[in-house]
Design brief:
heterodimer, A: 316 residues, Annexin V, domain 1, 4 domains, B: 310 residues, mainly alpha, 18 helices, 69% helix, 2% strand
Amino acid sequence: MSTLTVPAQVPSVTEDCEQLRKAFEGWGTNEQLIISILAHRNAAQRKLIRQTYADTYGEDLLKSLDKELTNDFERVVMLWTLDPAERDAFLANEATKRWTSSNQVLMEIACTRSSKQLLEARQAYHARFKKSLEEDVGYHTNGDFRKLLLPLVTAYRYEGDEVNITLAKSEAKILHEKISNKTYNDEDLIRILATRSKAQINATLNQYKNVYGNDIDQDLEADPKDEYLDLLRATVQCLVRPEHYFEKILRLAINKQGTDEGALTRVVTTRAEVDLKVIKDEYQRRNSVPLDRAVVKDTSGDYEKMLLALLGHGDA
Amino acid sequence: MAEIEALIKALSGHGVDEKTVISILGNSQPEHRQAFRKEGGFFAEDERRFERWNDHHVKLLKHEFMRFKNAVVLWAMHPWERDARLIKEALKKGPNSNSVIVEIASTRSSDELLGARKAYHSLFEHSIEEDVASHIHGKEKKLLVALVSAYRYEGPKIKEDVAKSEAKALISAVKNAEKQNPIENDEVVRILSTRSKPHLKSVFKHYKEIAGQHFEDELDVHLILQAAVQCLITPQSYFSRVLDEAMRDGADKNTKKGLTRVLVTRADVDIRAISDDYRNHYAIPLADKIEAKAKGSYKEFLLTLMARGS
């Protein structure tokens, strides 16, 4: 469930644009005004604002934001303002670049988005970067990581609820066999995770637990230092329990010495309109403290205010 | 006897010459039909002293009569449904039809392939990639799964230096063919399944320059891999080859289907270019070849598709 709060009476797009323009004028920037508008508009509204702003002032809103804002606050506002598909394309592209490379982010985008959303991200990728997502992922990753990531980012999973129990049983068996043999990069293992529908995978993992006693997660814990295994475990989580995955990312980001703002920003902006409420509940359950409070403790200034707004804290 | 010959001819080839069958068989007396049964080769003498239809031939006839109907149904279909169904059928038929999967994945535009993937969800409640991955077992599997999953960029931009280094990677894979079949080589699969078509054209141009010969002429290249490359960079040659193979004498059931498939799927796209390529390669206009090999309504239908708008 979304945490986004939009006022009951939304000002007209023209008014929003005027206010935003005002926020940039003069010596400083009125960050509070920016937050009060952008943090309380949904994707469709933000898109319209961006279009109208560009038509009216001849400049992309994002460009103005880039000029006026800095650091973590700028990044959270920029990512938030982007259309979800563009955002995913941007994050994915960043994740293929040398200094910001992240197999985890690529997997996260590929596995927690719906088939349609992943597809739209791929389309946005074409438009913005003049290449395909898969050619960049293929080129910039290698070995077992590529074996896993390429099929994940190119998947177009069936999204129905239908489940074939016989198939679930036989594929649970395959998974168990490969894991027991420690062949974690096995073709079949990857095939199952990368091509089956999420409902089917869920059924398969249930069968796995029924027949073999352990959660697949436990059986994949063989070597804590193995990055590939880490990614594999996270893949499974993203596919069937994304809220647990995101809670963990947030927990690690917040508990980390100095806070991982990158992860915090990414999770909040990409999930605010999707399931941040569920993630919040999960966070509270797991950490005995509300996510809002943890964010307040760990961040400050306009960055903190923007996050809180997206978390649904306070009024629209 | 000339009539029996004409009748046999009307029932052999692609489709059925309905008019001839009607005029000869329809006008026949019992003794004419008996002569046909004795001479035709479609029947065999049963132990109980009667000429019995050869079951196999009845099946063949059924296919020939259905050729027109299948072409019509395929033609009227939405291209997305058409491609989804063709892929499903290829999967059911087994490894000999893997080239059809390569054909569809590689010759369609990114959005057309995407449409096929969507239609496949609706029709079969699975994704194409999951079915391809679970039903194909040979060396081609990796490449096929990757090809059906592609959503290639379609702009003209190419990076020449990358294309050159990727050509080198291909050369190295071919040199190494004894240790690993190039079709299973990760770099080969990555390059062929993720790069844009313009980029690939450049890659293979560099291949020829550096290696001294065309990739398709390398001996150790798996047929499916060759087909994939052809489909990606010179689809018209690929299609004219499929057409020629379909119309050859003695072509098997699946190969023959290539005639309908190519005509129907390319009539709105590049059939003229394919036609030109065919004439250059096989020294006879495509329409003439179809006129000679196909029969009846099926033939007329195909020729009409080709002639539209000219």
